[in-house]
Each structure stands twice: as structure tokens, then as C-alpha cells.
Amino acid sequence: MRVLTTLLLLLLLRSAEPRRGPRSGGAGGRLRGRGRAGVMRRQTQECKEYMEAGEKYLDCQDRQLTTVMQDWPKDIHHLLLARNKIQVLRDNMFSQFTQLKSLDLQQNDISMVEEQAFSGLSQLTTLLLQHNGLKTASEEVLLPLPRLTYLRLYDNPWNCHCSLDSLVRTLQVPSNRNLGNYAKCDEPLSLRGQKLKTVKVDLLCEDNQVDPKPGRGDGGRPRPPPVKVKPDATSMCHTYMFPKPLLDCSHKDLNHIPSDLPSDIVKMDLSSNIIKHLRPKQFLLSKDLKQLNLSGNSLHHIDPAAFAGLLYLRELDLSNNSLHYFPYGVLEDLYFLRKLSLENNPWICDYNIHYLIYWLKHHPGVFYTGLICSEPQEFRGWRVEDYVKTYNGECPKDRQTEMETGQGNQGGGENEAQEVVGGTGDGQGGRLPRPLKEKKPNRIEIIRLS
């Protein structure tokens, strides 16, 4: 019986093998499918999804992405794709994100945008394309974006020839005042450095826009010198719009405040540079600025009008610099300042430091740190506030009172004063007054006048 049972089991196993093959293959397919799905989920999980102010963000920055993933959430409002490896924006690339309000594509390798790349994004208000490799585009790209309010195109090598004509005309429409600000021509040389917002459109399609050979001009005339481009904030720094508009100019070896600071920036980071002097009204256009970081520079002088216009500034970081004191008036425009960082500056405790303490005393809502005397030697390590409290404490109280009485010693006593008055009233033949300095050598009389 055991032998028969064993034989029957072997026969059953052999007969089941052909059927098991396809099933195992199907199972394997499903497993492979699950593996792929797992990979996709892991790729999605690499992006950070979060809510802020009731709106959904998908942060996919610094992920080495070359395109968007089809399994990303479709109900997001803000898509952050900065610092990836995207090269081309294909037609309908973002069409599934119908609720998208902002799209951040800065600092990629984008050199081409197809005309329907932004199809379906009827709710988009902010598009960031700065710091890429775009040379040309047409207004067709912007047609699917009826609500577009902010468009950043600077730090792209724009070729200001006839192919850019329609886009430039769109940017120069007065109602599009926040579209394409700061973007500049890179070619031809005759237009290099001119802003797309202000370049003369008629020049774009002229026949002489092709650059002549080196050293020669059309008709043997010398080639016009290129426009000298002064580095500005948009070409030297990076702008981030989310969660708050930020201009990041840190670690750029700057020795001055960049020109053409954007007007809609809320946070500005100028830390870890070599700026030595803040000149008047350098932040005048940044009226919305609330946080300014100037730490880690070599600041030793701040002009009294340096912070003019920063009425809404709330946080100012001046730590790790070479400041000795604040000139009178430096802080007068900072009505809403709430935090002032002053650590690691060589504050000199003399009369010049009094303005800073006076201003802080009359603005008790300002939280400040780092006011420690560095010089002179006798006050080193003291809090500046303690030094100021002792400024008038060197004179004895009696001496102060004596000074307040108006030279009580020199005037003599009350009786002497009466004698002087009486003597002068007697006229001729009257008694001469005793000398005012006539008194006992060691006698000190204090007259207190009420």
C-alpha cells in the first residue's frame, strides 16, 4: 500500500507540473509588476508631499529627475522641480496637474519648451524658468496660461533675433508687468545685456543682426562694442518663490550689494560674503523685505540711510562682522523690527555706542543679542547696557550736586551775597564787599536751590 501511495503521489506531481508552469509565470509577472510598482512608489516617496495654508505641495527638488512621473498626486497646487536634470519640456508634460498654481523649474538644463508644454494649466499663476539654457521661445508657450502673473526668465542665454519677436512683444505689454523681468539678451553682441522688457522690438528682425566676423564690420566699418553688463542680483544669486520669496546670495564672494534687487522678495540672504560697507538706499526697491541676513561679512561701516525704505523688516542679522558702533540714524526706518542679531562684533564702549542703546531702550519690543564690549580693555566682556549705566557714575554725588548748583563754592555764603548786594546799593562812600574767594581754606559750603 505504501508503494502504491508513493507512486500515485509522484504521478499527481508530474501531472501538475505543466499547469504549474503558467501559473508560476503569471505569479512571477504579478510579482514583477509589484516590484515595479514598489520602485515607482519609492520614487514618489523621494519627493516630499506636505500641506501649507490649506494647499498641497510636492517638493521634488534635487532628485536628478529628467521628467515628471505619471503616478505623482494629481491634486497638488505647487510643484517644486528646481535643481534637476530636465532638458526639454514636452507637449502635455504637466497636463494631469489641473489644479497647479505654481511650477518651479529653475536650475535645470532646459533648452527647449514645446508650444503645448503647459497645456491644461489654466490655474497656474507662477512659473519659474530662470537659470536654464533657453535661447528662444514664442508666445504660443504662454497661451494655455490665462492666469499667469509671475514669470521668471532671467539667467538664460536669450538669442534676441526674429524668432524671439512674439515673446518679447508679449512681455512688453503694460499689463504683463511681472512677466519676464530682468531677463536679458545674450546674442547678438550689439544687444547683449539689454532687457527683454525694454529692447526695441524692431531691432530683432533686422537683416544686420548676424554678428560679423571678428575684427570686421558690415561694409568695412568696425563692429560696435558690446554693451557692458553690470552683474546684478538675478545673474549672481538664486531666487526661490516657495514657501516664501527668497533671494539667496550667500557664499558668492560679493564685495558689494548686488544691483537691481527684485522688488517682491520677502527674505534675502547675503551671508558669508566680503561686503565691507553698506551704502545709502541700497535696499530701497525691496519694500516687502521682512528678513535680511548680512552675517559673516566684513562690515565695518553702515551708512545712516543704508536701510531706508525697509519699513516692514522684522529680522536683521548683523552677527560675525567688524562693527564698532552704529552711526546715528541707522535704525530709524525699521519701525517693525522684532529681532536684531549682533553677536561677534568688536563693539567699542565709548560715547558712539550710546545711540544703539538709546534706540533699543525706546523700542522694547525688539529682541537683541550679542552686545558685549570688546574695547577699551577695562570694559572688555561687559554688556554694553551695563557700561552705559555706569557712564555718569564716576563722579561722587556731592560733586554732581555741587556742579548742578552753579559754582556754589565761588559764590560764597548767603550772608556774603547779601553783603555784596547791600554794599552795591550804598553808592559812594559805602562799604566795599568782601572778596568772593575769602573763606576758610578747608571749609566747603553747599547751597541747594529749590
Automatic annotation (TrEMBL):
Region (Disordered) residue spans: 19-39, 207-229, 397-441
Signal peptide per UniProt: 1-18
Keywords assigned: Leucine-rich repeat, Repeat, Signal
Any one cellular-component term (Gene Ontology): plasma membrane
Occurrences of domain LRRCT (ranges): 156-206, 345-396
InterPro entries referenced in this protein's UniProt entry, alphabetically: Cys-rich_flank_reg_C, Leu-rich_rpt, Leu-rich_rpt_typical-subtyp, LRR_dom_sf, LRR_TM_domain-containing
UniProt protein name: Leucine-rich repeat-containing protein 17-like
Species: Sphaeramia orbicularis (orbiculate cardinalfish)
